[in-house]
Amino acid sequence: MLEAVATSVGALTASGGAIYLFVGTLVGLVFGIIPGLGGPTALALLIPLTFGIDTTAAMFLAGGIMGAIPFGGSVTAILLNTPGTAPNAATVYDGYPMTKKGQAGAALGAAAAASSLGGLFGILILFMVLPVAREIILMFSPPEFFMLAVLGLCAIAVSTDGKMLKGLIAACFGLMIAFVGYDNVSGAVRFDYGIDYLWDGISLIPALIGLFAIAQIVSLYLAGGSIADNPSAVRVSRVSDGIFAVFRYWKTLLRGSVIGAVIGAVPGVGGTVAAFLSYSVTVQTSRDPDSFGKGNIEGVIAPEASNNAREGGSLIPTLAFGIPGSAEMAVFLGLLVLHGLQPGPSLLINHLDVITSLMLSIAIASVLASIVCLAVARQLALITLVDVNYLVPVILSVSLVGAYALESSMHDVIVAVIFGAIGYLMIRFDYPRLPLVIAMFLGEVAEVNFRQSMMIARGDWTVFLTRPLSLVLFLLVILSLSVPFIRYLLRRRRASREALT
Amino acid sequence: MMKRALGLAAAAAMALAAGQAAAQDWPKGDVQLIIPSGPGGGFDTYARVLARAMEEDLDVKVVPQNVTGGGGLRGATVAYQAKPDGQTFAVFNVPGIIEPVINGESVAYDVSEIDWLGAMAFNQYVVVVGKDSPYDTIEDMKAAGEPITFTAYGSSGVAANRILCAEVGLECEIITGYPSNSEALLGVVRGDAIASVPPISTATAFNAKGDLKAILLMTERETPEFPDTEKAADAGYANLANLGLIRAFGLPPGVPAETRAAVQAAFDKALEAESVKTWAEDTGSAFEAMSGDELSALIESQTELLTRYKDVIAGN
């Protein structure tokens, strides 16, 4: 292993490897920042460009992109309340309130530091669990996937912003949307209303662009002024404050990284769930849960650490069984195959240096992307001082182009516009938007795995309780839902005891 | 160098043969290759390998475009309805596009109207179980006295699975909903079900660590990866060797003859390309170039076969 790492380092320093890594990082940052474009798109566009270069150089390019994307997506989440990629959706919840308070610099600093350290942790965890990767993956069957999805759905409870009923209504709406399209289990198309675009369901990315970017600029335009409520405060907030905060909240960072790496290793669940889980666990274990959603810096650190750590984790299913851990990894597998490598355990045996090169470049890129961004963070933060009349046309056109670029399809643009209207109505009538996103994302995972579990167990519901890991996850669901209640009881007891003394 | 020069000469000769007039008209810009499934899967890989090989000789790009949804039907529909100017062609999932027709579902395409260019492979199936499974043959399964569970991916996979069970007279329960053939195989390894019926190439790629045991090869061809496994014909089920997944390429109906000839020449040349052969060898992927006529004949026999099993496929 060490020998392969040495080869990779050698390749990085020689023959222009570092240039590929740097280019990949910049591409990843840009694709991450622009809403709509994300890892899968960047990698798919890159595949033909790698035909002319050797596999190791291609790994540097791909690793650069994979390492940089998650952080790039947090920039717009923090500054514009618009997640650049789906896994950054959880970051808007505290990142944007920080921006409104004039703390954009600190939020960017925290996101940058959490992303780089999370990325490094993810790779470190990958190194450590590689020997037992197969066992970990074999532990997760449909009942466990279902429980994991339910655990993810519990994040809705902390994302309702105190408006539980409206949050649940939004979540139910999200579930309804999630069930549109081809049903993989029965092979039937549902709720397509004769429109062939809907055979593939409503794509998450254009919906996110509409819900966040478009809805946001409509409400910004109507409100006028600038994004930051108090423009003079921006100068006070320093990027370094954010970086130091990450070290102060090292537990949040570590927890986020572990959640990210573990969820990343579970195929088909992905970074969005990891980020929401990390966020909700942080809120629930916090001494001051009410401060979240109002600009708590921990609310930025938790999801950002986890979605970078996920990159390392999502390599595990690929290395152990040759199956993709995420949409991005699926495209990456295509790249490997086109370079004549067969994804799977044979990679570790025959092409270890290729894998170490990839791991190395993901780790370096997550740090590099943060450094590049920190260098311009103050300038980026100034965007929040610009008169929204100038911002609106720019964001609107970038968002719509992003929706189009995803699949060169006008249908996606229409979806973005429709969800823009829905998003604006939700803002106007004070419905939280994150529950809708969580439900849209997890609805299908939960449904497919529930039905598969029922087929495997021949309709026996106890399958969720008789399998050890599934039972553990079920208890975590119960725990996460009862924490606020337990906390309330404890507080009341303490209060009554104090009243007595 | 010499090899390249020869290659160029051959290319020039072929272009002449393909019709000089058409060579001027096509390609008129980047060519679009529609893929009816997501990036990373089998059809996607074959299509991208072909796109790369075609680009080697064209001045334009061959842009793969994944049009997912409807279990592959959306991509097929979009490809069929594309403008017939030779700028758009597609990889089609056969028998995936035939099954809904046989099941009487309304589809927006006519399989017999698709203008076939040829195919890159005919991937036949294999029945696999976990390496520690007590079952070594189909007969063992039949003797088990209870239904055998299978994991399956996609409508073609489910259809192949049902036909297998009908043909050998086995009572089966099929667990569907897996996102790919590899994940259906992972389902077998972790115990979701007893067996699965993947394409041979998928099983080979997945089996690098020997997690699987093949118990029936649904092919007549020599399969060095599973040397000791019984072939369907020897087990008395010769019909099963007719099933397979065809990586078929075609144009929408109505492409003018001259343009068509130019596309065909570029397609044929790409199948000869060194890069395709090396890729197939390096990754152990099945590769067997098939002409448009051979493909049409194969599609016809597949349609006949599937029609015969119509009720079985529908799950009745």
Describe it for me?
The complex is a heterodimer of chains A (501) and B (316). Chain A is mostly helical and 501 residues long. Chain A has one domain (2-487). Chain A has 25 helices and two strands. A two-stranded antiparallel ribbon of chain A has the order 1-2. With 316 residues, chain B is of the alpha/beta class. Chain B has two domains: 2-122 and 244-313, Bordetella uptake gene, domain 1 (D-Maltodextrin-Binding Protein, domain 2); 125-242, Periplasmic binding protein-like II (D-Maltodextrin-Binding Protein, domain 2, 3-Layer(aba) Sandwich), CATH 3.40.190.10. Chain B has helices spanning 2-17, 20-25, 42-55, 73-80, 99-102, 138-142, 154-168, 181-189, 200-206, 257-272, 274-283, 292-308, 310-313, and strands at 31-35, 62-66, 88-94, 115-123, 125-130, 148-151, 172-175, 195-196, 212-218, 245-251, 290-291. A six-stranded mixed beta sheet of chain B has the order 2-1-3-10-4-11, with helices on both faces. A five-stranded mixed beta sheet of chain B has the order 7-6-8-5-9, sandwiched between helices. In chain B, helix 7 (154-168) links the parallel strand 6 and strand 7. The longest helix of chain B has 17 residues, at 292-308. The N and C termini of chain B lie far apart (61 Å). Chains A and B meet through helix 7, helix 17 and helix 23 of A and helix 3, strand 2, helix 4, helix 8 and helix 11 of B.
